[in-house]
Design goal:
By secondary structure, the protein is α/β, with parallel strands linked by helices. The protein has three domains: about 90 residues, MurE/MurF, N-terminal domain (Udp-n-acetylmuramoylalanyl-d-glutamate--2,6- Diaminopimelate Ligase, Chain: A, domain 1); about 200 residues, Hexapeptide repeat proteins (UDP N-Acetylglucosamine Acyltransferase, domain 1); about 30 residues. About 15% of the residues lie in helices and about 30% in strands. The protein contains three helices and 39 strands. Strands 8-11-14-17-20-25-28-31-34-37-39 form an eleven-stranded parallel beta sheet, with no helix packed on it. Strands 9-12-15-18-21-26-29-32-35-38 form a ten-stranded parallel beta sheet, with no helix packed on it. The chain has a nine-stranded parallel beta sheet with strand order 10-13-16-19-24-27-30-33-36, with no helix packed on it. β22 and β23 form a beta hairpin. The radius of gyration is 26 Å and the shape is flat. The N and C termini lie far apart (about 85 Å).
Length: about 350
Amino acid sequence: MISLGELASQLDVELVGEASCNITAVATLQTAGPGQISFLANSRYRRYLTSTEASAVILRTEDRDACLGNALVSTNPYLTYARVATLLNPVARLAGSIHPSVVIEPTAEIDPDAAIAANCYIAADVSIGAGVQIGPGCVIGKGVCIAADSRLAANVSVADGVEIGQRVLIHPGVVIGSDGFGFAPDQGQWFKVPQLGSVIIGDDVEIGANTTIDRGALENTVIEEGVKLDNQLQIAHNVRIGAHTAIAGATAIAGSTTIGKRCQIGGAVGIVGHLTIVDDVHITAMSLVTGNITQSGLYSSGTPLAGNREWRKNAARFGQLDGMARRLRALEKQLKEK
């Protein structure tokens, strides 16, 4: 529980109303009740301001007149809401402890303030920093370094030689440092190419559930600081993702592609290998990127949803485009010759 006055002070926002009002939880405008705080970040929900039972609402200055109760006035209500929710729901932190079922090789170095849950394996020459929390069933490979205050949820696998920075959050089922997909053709068969690089994860990265990040073939795969990765991504060998880029679920990035800083990549995007994407690029969901992107901006591809009958007609015409273009060029040539 925290008072509105304390929230306003800690978050440096304007308080309108009772500073002594106590807040215990966050909720939506439609469902909030006494003791709860809500927020208005999208104007389409403004109509709920007059009927909400929330004890307070986080909103912009232009929406203050429509709110009948207490308010925290912010230039970015959604961010303020996120910070309030964080204050009200602190992450449970285990004191330094190691479950009896954990297997630790003798040369591993584990800070006394780290916590390791049941059924984990910690290989030789591992370094685990202060405040690190490792959930049940994790496997930490030889020579892995995990810096202070990082958290691994259940069943995370970190292969040999991976480096993980400070305050990294890794969700269940993530695999970091698996072999890249490297094979050389050999008379109709495939010869495996040794994957000799590693994976470097910067500070303050978050990696969603069941995401896979492959180790580099010769150089390292690098995820720079502040990157946010959603669930079920495939990041191939030697990929580099720039600081503070965010990538939504089910996206696949092929090998040796470099993505710049502060990019936003939508869900189920496919990015082919050996490309360069500059800083501040936004790519919408279901796009296929087949060439370098050299200028920042918003990019899209793919076919939007349509009724089946319309889609079938358009698909048929798509197959006719080359012939139509050739006939058009022939007509243009004839006109010029007249």
